[in-house]
């Protein structure tokens, strides 16, 4: 073998006696076959076989299998972001003439996908009151093929009566997808209530460190998985094993992270209600939160994200006060180790239940800093707003 060939052919070394607790990162575009015949027959390997890096490696399959187990599903499909998980379900299961129902509190890019991409292509959507419960049945006509759930809702935090919505939708023959990002599979398992798809933005609690973008779709039926995989293949969409290996590391600590941020977020939500500049705190664990009873009945606890509605006029010094925060960072997305705060605009994003509060809404995500430092930072900011 000449040097140039040696550069390209990695020597085979022994793996004997090597055992690591880490999942190896398998990178691949090409997958090689032991002989010409197995290459010609590669399409017969089925969707669980390895044929091309884009369609899966042992690294991606490990995370998929782990999420499938956590959700009690049949298979999981990984996609490049949480938003892609939503758009892939909508693109796979809706045809021109079909209609999807989304809650008024949906993660807003999902609404924009329906409005700006699907509707001009002949796929319609309707928006429903997230607290509609079994009443969703009345909105499902023969064109409605899919009902989208997100509980609690983005920004306004309404907890949905997920079992009632699923039951009513199934009775009318519609598929049901549930964006479960706030709860993660540790606090809620939509498939156990009959949903067809459990959607997670792995970017948030599973990644856990604000350094990756991934989404997942866990399905209750193998047919649904095959249909999504075909669309991903046709569109050329897959995920990087490097991102997935970060998620495989993140998921190991998700349990302790969530338990901690859930406890602190509940404490802060209660305490913030006492602030002179706060009109309302929207946190599923507070009895005043719309749908609190469903959170109590269905979910195993809280995660770290909630909203605070300031009193009208309390935002005169807000920009300066936020900029002076020392521990909280200003930014969107959430689920990492750093606590975040951001203002959010709800007025333009509610069409069924108008958002009428005049005060500014702050989104707070609790991270892993010492809660005494966090509380001091927040109280200092609120004091500046009251001044
Ligand atoms: C962040 C988020 C998403 C999108 O996740 P990305 O990975 O950032 O695309 C979807 N749904 C909810 C509820 C989210 O909070």
TrEMBL record:
Signal peptide residues on this chain, from the entry's feature table: none
Q: Which organism is it from?
A: Rhizobium lusitanum
Q: Does the keyword Lipoprotein apply?
A: no
Does the keyword section mention Zinc-finger? Answer: no
Q: Which InterPro entries match?
A: Cys/Met-Metab_PyrdxlP-dep_enz, Cys_b_lyase_bac, Cys_met_metab_PP, PyrdxlP-dep_Trfase, PyrdxlP-dep_Trfase_major, PyrdxlP-dep_Trfase_small
What protein does this entry describe? Cystathionine beta-lyase
Per the UniProt entry, what is one GO biological process?
A: transsulfuration
Ordered alphabetically, the record's keywords are: Lyase, Pyridoxal phosphate
As stated in the Swiss-Prot or TrEMBL entry, residues carrying the post-translational modification N6-(pyridoxal phosphate)lysine are 204
A single Gene Ontology MF term assigned here is: cysteine-S-conjugate beta-lyase activity
Biological or metabolic pathway of the protein: Amino-acid biosynthesis; L-methionine biosynthesis via de novo pathway; L-homocysteine from L-cystathionine: step 1/1
């Amino acid at each position: 073998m000449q040097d140039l060939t040696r550069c390209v052919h990695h020597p085979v070394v022994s793996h004997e006696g090597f055992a690591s607790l880490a999942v190896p990162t398998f990178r691949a575009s090409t997958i090689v076959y032991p002989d010409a015949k197995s290459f010609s027959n590669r399409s017969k390997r089925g969707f669980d076989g390895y044929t091309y890096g884009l369609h899966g490696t042992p690294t991606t399959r490990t995370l998929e299998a782990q999420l499938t187990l956590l959700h009690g599903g049949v298979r999981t499909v990984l996609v490049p972001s949480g938003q892609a998980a939503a758009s892939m379900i909508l693109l796979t299961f809706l045809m021109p003439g079909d209609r999807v129902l989304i809650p008024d509190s949906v993660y807003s890019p999902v609404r924009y996908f329906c409005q700006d991409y699907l509707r001009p292509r002949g796929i319609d959507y309707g928006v429903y009151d997230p607290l509609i419960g079994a009443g969703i049945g009345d909105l499902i006509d023969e064109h409605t093929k899919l009902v989208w759930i997100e509980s609690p809702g983005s920004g306004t935090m309404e907890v949905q009566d997920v079992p009632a919505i699923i039951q009513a939708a199934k009775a009318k023959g519609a598929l049901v997808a549930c964006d479960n990002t706030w709860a993660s599979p540790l606090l809620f398992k939509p498939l156990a209530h009959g949903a067809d798809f459990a959607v997670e933005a792995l970017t948030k609690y599973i990644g856990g460190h604000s350094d990756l973008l991934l989404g997942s779709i866990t399905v209750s039926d193998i047919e649904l998985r095959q249909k999504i995989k075909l669309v991903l293949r046709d569109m050329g969409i897959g995920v990087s094993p490097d991102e997935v290996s970060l998620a495989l590391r993140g998921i190991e600590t998700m349990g302790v992270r969530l338990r901690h941020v859930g406890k602190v977020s509940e404490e802060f939500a209660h305490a913030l209600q006492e602030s002179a500049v706060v009109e309302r705190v929207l946190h599923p664990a507070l009895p005043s939160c719309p749908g609190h009873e469903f959170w109590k009945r269905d979910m195993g606890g809280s995660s770290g994200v909630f909203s605070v509605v300031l009193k009208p006029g309390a935002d005169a010094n807000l920009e300066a006060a936020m900029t002076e925060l020392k521990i909280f960072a200003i930014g969107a997305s959430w689920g990492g180790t750093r606590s975040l705060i951001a203002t959010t605009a709800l007025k333009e994003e509610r069409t069924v239940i108008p958002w009428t509060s005049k005060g500014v809404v702050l989104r707070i995500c609790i991270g892993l800093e010492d809660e005494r430092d966090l509380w001091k930072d927040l109280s200092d900011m609120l004091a500046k707003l009251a001044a």
